[in-house]
Amino acid sequence: MTTFNRRNWLRSAAALTAGVAVTDFWRPAEAAEVGLPHLAGMAIKARLSSNENPHGPSPKAQKVIAAAIPSSYMYHRESSMKLRKLIAAENGLTEDHVILGAGSGELLVATALCYAMKGGPKSHIVGGDLTYMQLISAAKKVGVDFKGVPLTADLDYNLNAMLSAIDGSTSLVYLCNPNNPTGIPVDSAQLAAFCQTATKQKPVFIDEAYIDYVSDPKTATMTECIRKGQDVIIARTFSKVHGFAGLRVGYLLAKPEIVNTIRNFYAGGGGICATSIQGAVVSYQDADFMKYSLQKTEEAKQYLYALLKSKGYTPIPSSTNFVLFPLKSDGRAFVGEMAKQGVSIKHWDYRGQSYCRVSLGTMEEMRYFGDAFQKIAV
């Protein structure tokens, strides 16, 4: 466990509350460690490592963003209020249930600090192991432990085991749905039942960054739990289907009292630039672009499925904009060889098996991946 230093812990929390970036929370790992060779200066022709959407932002959003530049000397209060109203109405909630952030990452870190302070240095977060780690990593940096519950043999969350892992020292329960890096969604009925039981003990945080990619997002989301008054916190982002990864817009949904508490641990949406907010307002209402974006992602996914199967690989069915598959060789070596071919991807080692995760890019990028894969795959 990380040595707990109360002074540093409070300083970190205070810094984020004041809207100051806490460097350690945001510093990326070395490129060689996380399999992002483009960060190490390599010439990358197929950037398939960060789950970005190369089809966005939408043309309508781009037009509004460009037009907003002359007025960006002003703070974006009105645009922020408009976006919060749109999000609240779409989810059957009030504006008091919504807070905005510079991407969902800022909000994950703020939540980590909030519940680290609530739980104290001897608390822990319960979550699946394997999962997306930003919230958990931020909590660990201020002395909170991670009680990771292994996934099932099929790489699903073991919800019963996660319930059993919750105890008096638990500060928060974290799930990513669909999960990253597996791409597997949680059964909606099972997750709703889990939330109903778990929130009687501790708050449940659900990262829905990829919820737009599931077959029925309105059924898959757990916003109904919030409407029922349960202590469920939902994070969403514009970085995926909207193509706003570099524009940094995200939001949290939760009961107003939870929202108001988390708001104390970050800049309260003030870190989003005015152009991004105005673009997000338009993109959120651009159903045609979302349909187009999802269609293009599905085309790339089907291409990748066919390619992998043709070489004897078994892709894990994905409800996201990436695909995970088990490798037949060492993951680090495979990523390195693909990087030499100009392809940026990521790998994980889990239970003695190496896995590769490929983000779904343009068809040109996918074919470039295919050419490199044909040369290297065993």
Automatic annotation (TrEMBL):
Gene3D superfamilies, A to Z: Aspartate Aminotransferase, domain 1, Type I PLP-dependent aspartate aminotransferase-like (Major domain)
InterPro entries given in the database record:
Aminotransferase_I/II_large, HistidinolP_aminotransfase, PyrdxlP-dep_Trfase, PyrdxlP-dep_Trfase_major, PyrdxlP-dep_Trfase_small, TAT_signal
Is Chaperone among this UniProt entry's keywords? Answer: no
What's the EC number here?
Answer: 2.6.1.9
Q: If you read the UniProt record, what top EC class would you report for this enzyme, in one word?
A: transferase
Q: Which domain of life is it from?
A: Bacteria
Pfam families linked: Aminotran_1_2
**Key words of the record:** Aminotransferase, Pyridoxal phosphate, Transferase
Please name the PANTHER family in this protein's record: HISTIDINOL-PHOSPHATE AMINOTRANSFERASE, HISTIDINOL-PHOSPHATE AMINOTRANSFERASE 2
Give the UniProt family note. Belongs to the class-II pyridoxal-phosphate-dependent aminotransferase family. Histidinol-phosphate aminotransferase subfamily.
Can you name this protein?
Answer: Histidinol-phosphate aminotransferase
Lineage, broadest ranks: Bacteria, Pseudomonadati, Bacteroidota, Cytophagia, Cytophagales
